[in-house]
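Page 42, continued from yesterday. The earlier attempt failed because a stray header line got pasted into the input along with the sequence. Redoing it now with the clean sequence only.
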Amino acid sequence: MADARALNPLSGRGRQAEARRNDLAVLDAARDVFTVHGASAPITAVAERAGVGMGTLYRRYGSKTELLQRLCVLSMEQALEAAADALRADDPWTGLAGYIRACVELRAGALAALAGQVETTAEMRATAQRGLAATAEIVGRAKQDGSLRADVTSLDISWLIEQFSRRARDPVDQDEERNVRSRLLAIALDGLRARPDGQALPGRPPSREHYTSRWTAPSANM
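This time it went through. Structure tokens are written below.
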């Protein structure tokens, strides 16, 4: 599980605290930039949106690839913290719904725009496996108590989070964007609840191979 101090920009003092604040600012900016433009977006756009200098980025990261890899890990660590909260919830449905909402708020799936465009590291793969396992445990609890429909899989939840993590680029009315997203997420959560009529979902469950193979990328540095 990620060290909570690594995710809290207010923890620590001096240079370490500043570095954490910069990391989270860059992560937030990267979610904005790469969701729209993919991995080909210039790092200058991320730095400008985050309000940090290029020198700051390259003092911490040796290359664009290294920066993107670190951002992916940091994003997954944030989702793992949300998963830990969900698993501590007494009510499994409350835990599941809270996990989905927290991940959507964090835009935990936004960096999926980088899939296939950045080489994965052992740390990325290990963190992703922990995330998938945690999601499966959250889903399993909600199924066991009968609140979640039986044909929903943990990958359905992962894909749902990814879809809701997308954002319009610089929306004219941010309040209305949030309003619409909140309403649609409520509709989606309602659709996850167990149905007394037993009506099945259409199609087949998502493929784990398809979900993970998107991250296969050439080894050339960016």
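Notes: The chain has a mean pLDDT of 86.
Reminder to self: strip header lines before submitting.
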